């Protein structure tokens, strides 16, 4: 397993797909179809409550205002944002037909069919960010908008409303919540085919957290403290929680801010905070020297927090204000989390999807014996050992999340050194690592005598293989 890098996973799967194509006939088409999964970036879905700020955050991560965001209108279709030219959209209907769709000026698309018949929208645009990750925006979870809620569940939960064709095949999820997730949201997250390793929590709208911009405590600091407090109770669902202001991130990452905005804001720099609040609440055309339309524009771009605290910085110009917004937004930490742990396990999840497709093909294809041999060869390759560990971990989370076996699988997956894989710290001498591997190997062998599920049987095979290699010093 020590040899497993994203590159070696990729190379090994690529070799397998070449072997599949070499079987000839329609296996070439199957190899090409599965190859598109291998050559496309991991797919990260953004989910959360109605109005949690999902579309705003998606725009910020893409670096372009392509997703519609609004205080009133809700996102009503699932949209998959992928890198590509020309900028265009296609709608996949629940009956599997595809329809080209016109782009609206600004953001969003014209749906050529009713939203209730849409499985999801494929939206391509040239974007460096989307070359690394495909981003999927979803309608909010809420019983208030039952149709939207169902649209998200349909593509996320296998077998929901018997619509399997609609699956969006995500590799990781970003879960947005504000104060605390609700019971129904937690239940939804448990039904997703992910492990906490590929689920990242985002405490959204951090700029208006708690009492907000005019409260006693800085909302961003307060949100960071709250995120840290929530990390423990939510550890079984997400591996980290990052506080983010999607609004400040969107404004600073999509080129929306101009010198005109900075100049308008700078006019308010010497006014007392409560007076600023009064100016923004008033419809008086001359209040504060900034007309109502411009006040609304500033508020929509910066939020109350940005308006209140960005005034001094605005005097230094739009570039300075933009830098400040970007820094305070928390988007850098979110990006880091997305490319670090989440990204690593999303890659493994994508490899799992490819192996699952091969397994499925082996089930139905006339050349099933060849395909089965080929897939078994891939699974036995050390480069793909971590994929099997991830699959076992996912199954154990379903049947017995608190079992010792589940914990050991997680330790193996998240460790970056041989010592870490047996639960020791990275500086442990090799002799201590092999001794601990021997001890764990014996314990795993002992446990095979009284297992409680098929998932545990499979997991023990994986643990025994891993500990045998570590005991031999590999
Ligand atoms: N202050 C503040 N407002 C935000 C933030 N993110 C989003 N908003 C505002 O909240 C409203 C809803 O934002 P959206 O991004 O459309 O939320 P959504 O989760 O996509 O909403 P649905 O798709 O309807 O579920 C908009 O008016 C946004 O401007 C944020 O970080 N801070
Ligand atoms: Mg939305």
TrEMBL record:
Signal peptide annotation: none
One Pfam family hit: MMR_HSR1
Listed InterPro entries: Dynamin, GTP-bd, P-loop_NTPase, TRAFAC_Dynamin-like_GTPase
A molecular function (GO) term: GTP binding
Domain G as annotated: residue spans: 43-185
Protein name, entry field: GTPase
Organism, scientific name: Gordonia lacunae
């Amino acid at each position: 397993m020590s040899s497993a890098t994203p590159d070696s996973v990729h190379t090994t799967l690529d070799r397998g797909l070449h072997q599949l194509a070499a079987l000839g006939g329609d296996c070439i088409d199957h190899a090409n179809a599965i190859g598109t999964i291998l050559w496309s970036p991991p797919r990260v879905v953004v989910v959360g409550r109605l109005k949690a700020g999902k579309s705003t955050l998606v725009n910020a991560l893409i670096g372009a205002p392509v997703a519609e965001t609004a205080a009133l209108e809700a996102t009503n279709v699932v949209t998959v944002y992928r890198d590509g030219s020309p900028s265009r959209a296609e709608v996949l209907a629940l009956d599997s037909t595809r329809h080209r769709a016109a782009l609206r000026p600004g953001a969003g698309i014209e749906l050529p069919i009713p939203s209730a018949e849409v499985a999801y929208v494929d939206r391509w645009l040239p974007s460096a960010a989307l070359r690394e990750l495909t981003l999927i925006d979803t309608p909010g979870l809420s019983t208030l908008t039952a149709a939207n809620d169902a649209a998200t569940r349909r593509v996320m939960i296998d077998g929901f409303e018997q619509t399997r064709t609609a699956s969006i095949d995500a590799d990781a999820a970003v879960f947005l919540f504000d104060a605390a997730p609700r019971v129904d949201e937690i239940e939804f997250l448990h039904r997703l085919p992910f492990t906490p390793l590929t689920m990242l929590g985002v405490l959204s709208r951090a700029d208006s957290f708690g009492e907000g911009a005019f409260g006693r405590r800085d909302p961003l600091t307060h949100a960071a403290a709250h995120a840290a407090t929530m990390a423990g109770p939510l550890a079984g669902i997400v591996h980290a929680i990052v506080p983010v202001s999607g609004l400040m991130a969107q404004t600073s990452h999509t080129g929306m801010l101009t010198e005109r905005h900075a100049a308008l804001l700078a006019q308010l720099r010497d006014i007392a905070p409560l007076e600023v609040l009064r100016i923004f609440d008033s419809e008086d055309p001359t209040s504060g020297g900034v007309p109502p339309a411009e006040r609304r524009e500033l508020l929509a771009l910066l939020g109350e927090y940005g308006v209140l605290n960005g005034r001094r910085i605005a005097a230094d110009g739009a570039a300075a204000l933009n830098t400040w917004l970007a820094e305070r937004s928390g988007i850098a930490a979110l990006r880091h989390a997305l490319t670090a742990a989440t990204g690593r396990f999303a890659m493994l999840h994508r490899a799992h999807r490819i192996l699952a497709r091969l397994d499925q093909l082996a089930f139905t294809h006339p050349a099933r014996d060849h395909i089965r041999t080929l897939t078994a060869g891939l699974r036995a390759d050390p480069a793909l050992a971590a994929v099997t560990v991830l699959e076992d971990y996912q199954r154990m989370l379903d049947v017995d999340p608190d079992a010792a076996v589940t914990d050991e699988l997680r330790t193996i997956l998240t460790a970056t050194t041989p010592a870490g894989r047996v639960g020791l710290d990275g500086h442990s001498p090799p002799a201590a690592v092999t001794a601990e591997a021997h001890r764990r190997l014996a314990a795993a062998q002992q446990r095979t005598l009284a297992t409680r599920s098929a998932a545990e049987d499979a997991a023990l095979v994986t643990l025994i293989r891993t500990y045998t290699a570590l005991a031999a010093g590999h």
